């Protein structure tokens, strides 16, 4: 992969992030409900997406952009940028400072490059296939914890109510071993697995743009990334479990109980 692709993704993420930070700190914005009361979109999502699309398509007009707010192309592509211009909109709207810009570049359903930018902390996570994962220029790796007891685990609640009984049962099982958190930005949660803050993370029914950047970064930092049932991860199915190798199998087993 040309390094220029990663460079363009970084520029795009910083540009989108500057828009998010500006509105978060000062400006008013409009909010529209999507599927349920906590599935929201703002005009900021769209402004960030437009700027990111412009940067990527000017540099790489032959590569489709699949984005949450305005795709150049939709559906499966042999190669594409996957863009979430504001991952954590619910947090953003409620002034909870945990959200990000997420970009992933995939070829033939394989992650090739990922960038996730937290504009509040100014944390820039990035990586490319075979080259490792980095936070603000420093290489990062997953935690070395070997037990679930006392580990920092994170999940999320799917918008589809049919999945709620499953996740509630899994939460009950895991909380017999340790405490649990819901943070609200899949991209950042995957990056926090990558840098060793979070020991394990799983969630269901996410979109390709939620996961494309963070999955690459987590894998390059040494995480094992699968579906929560242990099957191979599929970007378009949207179910994910990411954890260090020593924790991964134990978390899978805990979710089955």
From TrEMBL:
Residue sites binding Mg(2+) per the record: 68, 84, 86-87, 210
One example GO MF annotation: inositol monophosphate 1-phosphatase activity
UniProt cross-references to SUPFAM superfamilies, sorted A to Z: Carbohydrate phosphatase
GO biological process, one term: inositol metabolic process
Protein EC: 3.1.3.25
Pfam families, per database record: Inositol_P
Keywords assigned by UniProt, alphabetized: Hydrolase, Magnesium, Metal-binding
Gene3D superfamilies according to UniProt: 3.40.190.80, Fructose-1,6-Bisphosphatase, subunit A, domain 1
Catalyzed reaction equations: a myo-inositol phosphate + H2O = myo-inositol + phosphate
Cofactors named for this entry: Mg(2+)
Matching PANTHER family: INOSITOL MONOPHOSPHATASE, INOSITOL-1-MONOPHOSPHATASE-RELATED
Protein family membership: Belongs to the inositol monophosphatase superfamily.
Listed name of the protein: Inositol-1-monophosphatase
Gene source species: Atribacter laminatus
């Amino acid at each position: 992969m040309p390094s220029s692709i990663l460079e363009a993704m970084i520029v795009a993420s910083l540009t989108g992030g500057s828009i998010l930070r500006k509105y978060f700190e000062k400006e008013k914005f409009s909010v529209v409900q999507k599927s349920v009361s906590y599935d929201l979109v703002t005009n900021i999502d769209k402004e960030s997406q437009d700027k990111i699309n412009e940067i990527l398509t000017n540099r790489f007009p032959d590569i489709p952009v699949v984005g949450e707010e305005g795709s150049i192309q939709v559906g499966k592509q042999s190669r594409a940028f996957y863009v979430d211009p504001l991952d954590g909109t619910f947090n953003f709207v409620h002034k909870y400072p945990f959200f990000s810009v997420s970009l992933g570049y995939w070829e033939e359903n394989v992650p090739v490059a990922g960038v996730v930018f937290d504009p509040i902390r100014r944390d820039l996570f990035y990586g490319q296939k075979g080259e490792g994962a980095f936070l603000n220029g420093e290489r990062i790796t997953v935690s070395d914890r070997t037990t679930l007891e006392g580990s920092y685990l994170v999940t999320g609640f799917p918008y589809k109510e049919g999945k709620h009984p499953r996740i509630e049962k899994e939460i009950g099982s895991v909380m017999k071993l340790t405490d649990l958190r819901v943070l609200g930005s899949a991209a950042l949660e995957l990056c926090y697995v990558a840098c060793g803050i979070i020991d394990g993370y799983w969630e269901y029914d996410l979109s390709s743009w939620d996961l494309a950047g963070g999955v690459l970064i987590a894998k390059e930092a040494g995480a094992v990334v699968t579906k929560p049932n242990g099957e191979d991860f599929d970007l378009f199915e949207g179910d994910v479990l990411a954890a260090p190798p020593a924790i991964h199998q134990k978390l899978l087993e805990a979710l089955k109980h």
